Amino acid sequence: MGAPFETTRPQPKTTTPHHLSQYLSLIQQYMNVFRLDNAIFLAERCVAEFPTDATALYWLCFAYYRAGQLSRAQHLLSKAAHLTPQLLYLSAQCSYELKEYARAEDALLHDCRHQFKQQQSSSSQGHTFEEWILQTTPCPIPNGAAGLALLGDIFRKSNRTQRAIQYYQMSLQLDPFLWSSFQALTDLGVTVDVPTVFGVSQTTTAAAATKTPLQPPSPGLTPIHQNTTTTMEEETPSHTTVVLRRARQVANRGYYPPSPETPSLSTVTRSMRYLQGLGEAEPRSLFLEDEKGDVQTILQTLATMGQAYQELSHYQCQACLDTFKQLPLSHQNTSWVLHQQGKAYLELNEFTAAQRCLEHMKHLEPGRLEGLELLSTVYWHQKKEVDLASLAQHVVAWDKRSPQAWCVVGNCFSLQKDHEAALSFFKRSLQLDPDFTYTHTLCGYEYMANEDFEPAMACFRQAIRTNERHYNAWYGLGCIYHRQEKYDLAEYHFERACQIHPTSSILRCNWGISQHANGKAYQALETLAEASRLDPGNPQARFQRATIYSALHRPQEAALELEKVRDAAPREATVHFCLGKVYKRLGRLDDAMKCFLAAMDLDPKDSQMIKSAMDKLDNPDIDEETMIPF
Amino acid sequence: MGAPFETTRPQPKTTTPHHLSQYLSLIQQYMNVFRLDNAIFLAERCVAEFPTDATALYWLCFAYYRAGQLSRAQHLLSKAAHLTPQLLYLSAQCSYELKEYARAEDALLHDCRHQFKQQQSSSSQGHTFEEWILQTTPCPIPNGAAGLALLGDIFRKSNRTQRAIQYYQMSLQLDPFLWSSFQALTDLGVTVDVPTVFGVSQTTTAAAATKTPLQPPSPGLTPIHQNTTTTMEEETPSHTTVVLRRARQVANRGYYPPSPETPSLSTVTRSMRYLQGLGEAEPRSLFLEDEKGDVQTILQTLATMGQAYQELSHYQCQACLDTFKQLPLSHQNTSWVLHQQGKAYLELNEFTAAQRCLEHMKHLEPGRLEGLELLSTVYWHQKKEVDLASLAQHVVAWDKRSPQAWCVVGNCFSLQKDHEAALSFFKRSLQLDPDFTYTHTLCGYEYMANEDFEPAMACFRQAIRTNERHYNAWYGLGCIYHRQEKYDLAEYHFERACQIHPTSSILRCNWGISQHANGKAYQALETLAEASRLDPGNPQARFQRATIYSALHRPQEAALELEKVRDAAPREATVHFCLGKVYKRLGRLDDAMKCFLAAMDLDPKDSQMIKSAMDKLDNPDIDEETMIPF
């Protein structure tokens, strides 16, 4: 039995034995049918016989990876004498998932940096490393755009945000289909020029673009933005053409190397036939077609979605909803779009519409838990206890191990004012995913409801650590500092919240109040005017302006503001009362008396205070400055 | 912006838009580079546009599956109007991993059963369902042999062992490379005809086969074995040819459908070149070769390994070690083979050799935790505390979430006689994998060491529930029943252990002792004779025979056995003492005195008892029957 082996000993250096290709074909087939155990067994045998073959090593490590044995794959790769780009990429992926970011970065960049240094010494060009990467063909990073995107992820996770942004941008420049990079950039607060990135002609999206101009982000949040624009503009003349050419290359020719495999053309045809129903149909011609087709349909969809996603990210919620309506119905009726729409309506405080979208999403795909935490917040605001309890059951039944599940359950107890229980479920949610920003914030508000400010602040800070653009947490911190009378800190935190969500009237109103408290009356007046402009239906902004005018001894302007507030909210006793006091200062005693009577009529329980004011109507003012906010 | 979409609305029924193939190409590329987020996003868009396309649905569900969202994939598949075999297989895989075995079985068998019933009513053939499956071409089960193997897994996990065996056998008949099915059959105690299954001619493995004849398994353990033999024998005339033809089909043409994809031939070539180092080398011709090559090299390797694996499964440990030596060195020097060799040496109680194999395995692949629990047992037996502690650190550092890690740590504390700590770590091991048989057994022994028999028995029963062929647990139960003087139960459990491990002298010896205690003296003598034959170096079997002869008042035969024991173990005081007493009964008082003196010399601490026997040498015997076992 020993004899047959003597003649077939591995001869990796001279010719490649045919049974290597048979091994590889078998391993890939077993991977395709999820028989990882068999694939691993054969791949181990194959590597034993062909220890220097990169393809065999790739398949063994990939099988370990698929089976969840990341450290084992990583170790095996670390021992290999020479790593091909594909093996380096797999190694980086393993290290990334093992949270060994420095090692992952090294796998992707080490060889490149070496190559760059060699080229630099030979030619004296003044390129940066990143410029050199983009200008070199083929891209020197393993797996090109995917490698750059993975570097983006690595930098993001290791808190090197600027570099993350740079590499995401590079990856998107090489592959316009890398939606994940676009989404990451948007989530990081970078304003991406959507038509440019997706190669859609400016005219096509012009209507949407002019209707909803994207505000330039504040400098603090997107330090790299100028840089991008420059890079993109250099290519402007034929930019659309360039992007389309790249897109066609990616989609038709296969930009990324397919998994190493050995199928013949007939195999591919067979598999297609099989998929369509056991060899009954003829092989579909499209799979053997050449690259005549166009990619614009897909890019157009991505561009519209990207536009809407970016608008939502800048809290231009109505614009976002309008943009989504431009999608064909087949795309509008998907859970992802419904999720974004629900979020937009929630930001607009339109709870009924938000509920409709998110419930439709849940109906379409009950197993999709992303977004259900928002639905629970919608129910919470509407005080719908039964719906919230039923949603909690639903999410826990679908996936006990998801952070959304316990976030929803926590909200359920929060609505019942059982803060202890709510906090313990929120904590379970965070155990499952310590980066689940939303739960950190909800935890913070739960502590706030208990007047437990120290832990509340810790929660908000954690939320910001996981997502710097989570305005809710900045707002929560601002509220606490304001209550603690640390007005400068309150002002700073409200300002950060406003930078992220520039269209929120409520945030801006709070900012104005803290500016006033911090002694900046005139800035406060401007801020509150802007808040009033953003939502003319928000009486709080005008009321606060009236308070400031009154404090500045400008009762005329205070009266003007309060009159507008009264017209908008005629049943608010406090407004009438305050207006009465202002009229008194202006000497309009009859008007003042009418206001006090209206206030008394609307709010009999405060009658004592109002009566006292009426009694003192003829006495001079002493304490008008301190007005009671409603 | 709405306009472009009007013209490209999905038209699944008439012609297939080219951008469907572009979507599919992109999705597959992102899967290949582990960008599951991007693949899922694009697949969702693709399914929205082409809701009836099976390939698009497959990729979306496969992407969910890869991302660990099994319920979501399962739900999506359950809603589809028509499922192709590939989709049914994916659905079954999801259900299997979600432990929903009835649902998994239904996905694979429902359509087939329907088809079978229709055929049965039209033709009046008397085939069983399973015969019909094997005779129908192409195999009506989704993914053929892989589908049958998955059914084997499903039946095994749902405790339908006989059907599991049947389906594993069917899968192996269709695909001789399905090592996982072979291994499952062997682990279930089925004797597989190795040369037949792997299509290796009988003559090639004849040497090994005659040298180490496989014992037929006991009927209770392998009820289906006769069935197999019949099926195989029917094909004997051209069997090897048949297997080879099948093997060639699987390896060369691609028996399993590859993942649905759209690469052109040039793409495959490109990827190969890429893998070998960024387009430097020419495409390797082997990947475009046709099916001229032969599969015998691979099958030969599998046959040799299969032979060894089966021998080890029958505890023909020396034969197993000999068979492994027939492998080429490249295969011998792999961690899998070293693991099996280590196990074989451990079963032979050759701790030094076992340690050498398992340490070599650990050195080759530090990240391979399978088998390190055996190394910890080797250290335990050798009382190597330092090595065991260092091993415990190693496994915990590599993978805290593996059952092996905490099994080793438990052994570490067991050696230090800290039973409480050992038990708590063993329990952690079982939390991570409740089916990790070995830890159940170790738990049982730990409780036994504490004389805590009830929980010990519960542990041994759990071990048997997870693996009926784990002889160690049967042995543990036998020991407890023996100590509780429930000799019939002890006898039954020792017998089961002996059926599994027929070559163990120690197991058989215990069986004989319990037979004797149960009043079956003559059967006990036979059992002990066999135990003695299995390991002539084991003095316990002969000593027990002497005990029985003495109890049967046959001192002559008792003396003969004891003399042999004395010659083998001349420094055992008890043997001399017992021999002295037997000589006394035979009237050989001088010889008796010599024996007593020798015993006194070897074991001064029992001198009082020996002295008393010497004093009573001239008195007649009263209590010889009760002899002290050593």
From TrEMBL, chains A, B:
GO cellular component: anaphase-promoting complex; cytoplasm
TPR repeats: 145-178, 403-436, 437-470, 471-504, 573-606
Principal location class: nucleus
Gene Ontology process terms (BP): anaphase-promoting complex-dependent catabolic process; cell division; metaphase/anaphase transition of mitotic cell cycle; protein ubiquitination
Location(s), subcellular: Nucleus
Gene3D superfamilies given in the database record: Tetratricopeptide repeat domain
Keywords recorded for this protein, A-Z: Nucleus, Repeat, TPR repeat
SUPFAM superfamilies from the UniProt entry: TPR-like
InterPro entries the UniProt entry points to: TPR-like_helical_dom_sf (IPR011990), TPR_2 (IPR013105), TPR_rpt (IPR019734)
A Pfam match: TPR_7
Stated family: Belongs to the APC3/CDC27 family.
Protein name: Anaphase-promoting complex subunit 3
